[in-house]
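Our collaborator T.R. sent over the components below with a one-line note: 'Predict the complex.' Nothing else. No constraints on interfaces, no templates requested, no preferences about which chain binds where. So this is a plain run: every listed entity goes in together, and whatever single assembly comes back becomes the starting point for the next discussion.
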Amino acid sequence: MPDTRPLTIALSKGRILEQTLPLLEAAGLTPHEDVQKTRKLMVDGDVDGTPVRFLIIRAADVCTYVEQGAADIGVAGRDSLLEYRPHVYEPLDLGIGRCRLCVCGPKALVEAGPAERGSRIRVATKYDQLAIEYFQSQGVQAEIIHLYGSMELAPLVGMAERIVDLVETGSTLKANGLVEEVTLCDISSRLIVNPASFATRKAQVQPIIEKLRLAVEARDKG
Amino acid sequence: MKHKPIIGLDDAFGSRAKALRSMQGKMLDLFDQAGYEEVIPPIFERPDALKSGAGRFLADQTVVFSDPAGAGTLAIRSDMTPQIARIAATRLQAEKVLKLCYSGTVMLARPDVRGGSRQQWQTGVECLGVAGAAGDIEVMHLAARCMMAAGFRKSVLQVGHIGLLKALVAGCEAPLESWTALLARRSPDDLRELIASESIAEERGNALLALAKGKGDEQWIAASVGKYGADFDLAAKELLDLVHEVGDRVEGDVSVYADAAVMPRFLYHSGILFAGFAEGVSQALLYGGRYDAMMKAHGRDMPATGFSCDLWALLDTV
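Returned assembly:
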């Protein structure tokens, strides 16, 4: 007997949501309310007439909802996937929310050269693991100062020598006298799937992946 | 509070302790009825006994310490299968066929999942000395019954074969674990980068991408026979025959299907692999497969297959 519970799809709030909606529409996934305007966190919808529901949550929480099985499918940034390494499948890069994960610092410090091998520096970031791994690979001992936002402020007030953060246009860095030192990796948003949902609801999940794949390909060609 | 509980280690008491014992009783009864004899190995081993043929991941997950009684370095088991292999290769070496079951705590150096537990109550069976598909069929039927006995009404056994991947990446420089790590995440975009860094034939690269895209089903496997060499064909035939055999006779509402991208939890499997899932449960409930190579590494060359689950996880999800 097929599973009749509606599939649950977790979407990231904010800028990513704006870029996700055209792909969902092209793949036939339709929320029944304007998810950018509603204050509801759970919105009903359908995929070609079959009920689904959408969760509208913070980008960093999408991995958790999908890993825990509270959502079958989600749209999550590669930054969160690399940092938290959730047990989820990543079948499709949606090519949205493009930016870079970078090490940045005050212009004068960066121009003086990378942190010396064996030195100890303070790094403000919300990507603790990725920052530790990078500086370890450089022979630099990083004291991680975990922040939840506005990393650019930390070097300005003398709390850190470097930051590790997402950079899109670089305008916030520039406005605060910071420059990029190294790009660690390119970031974009990915479709993620709970492995158990893939195993037990493959007949519902796989067609959605394929429709989104076609929507991404059509967008990239067009 | 003088002695705070250690993060990642739970205590069971009250109704939860009762429920755990009850779940353990159900599993051990089931295994006993199927002819599996219980073994109770110690919680410590010599590190070599746990690491022989067991792959790097398991070694990374094993806590070692110096024995104050002078036995040298000892390790706390992070998986009981190597202990069963050690017992079969030493104390029980006179018996040609061994059907053993076990239920005990294993300790991981770090949690398997974020915020998860470092301890598992590993409960499972090992079927040793039964050649060919017969052993795999037997343990997979038992795995299906195990999920039913635990209370899961609608389950799935996803079956793969590590030989398929080994055949596709034969001759590549990247170690097998690089491929299994990417396929475990089913990430074609990351896999594409690894393929590009290897001098791998385009057709094989496309086959790997098909696996990551979730397209490695029975039809794909059957259509791929004859394209990637004798080792691939052998694994494909073994997998397809097994899925039919198990699926035809499985009890209860359990679906059995082939998926060439099923990856091992630990890298010691050398043949068939399977993972058990149930509707509404967020992660795999059990893992199993064939591990003849580990037996060889323990000095007793014999066929071996089995599966295990974590009682804590079963109880928390049922």
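Summary for T.R.: Residues 7-97+188-221 of chain A form a domain with the D-Maltodextrin-Binding Protein; domain 2 fold (CATH 3.40.190.10).
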